Amino acid sequence: MKFPNKDEEELLKNSVVNHFMSGYSKILKEGGLKTEDINKKDILPVDKVSLKEVAGEKDTFSFNADFKIKNYKITFHGTINKNKEIKDEVFWGKKHLK
Description:
- The protein is of the alpha+beta class.
- The chain is built from one helix and five strands; from the N terminus they run H-E-E-E-E-E.
- It has one domain (6-96).
- Strands 1, 2, 3, 4 and 5 form a five-stranded antiparallel beta sheet that branches.
- The N and C termini lie far apart (39 Å).
- The mean pLDDT is 81.
């Protein structure tokens, strides 16, 4: 599925960011990060969210979204469909920023 317009694409990208921001504590804990000293204000989106069509799956896109959390850059990855359902979410890349 190609995006019929930029608005739909932006809605999906915003859904990814909102999903991470609303569940960052659980998402990061599952990945092994201590979250006691992380507040929502410490989390900043770094770049735009990238979406890529998933081959063989109609209306499904994989996404990558980078966030800066304190001195770390974290990549949040998963799939999202046109109904804004997010699945297969993982994060990686606790890259230390200088």
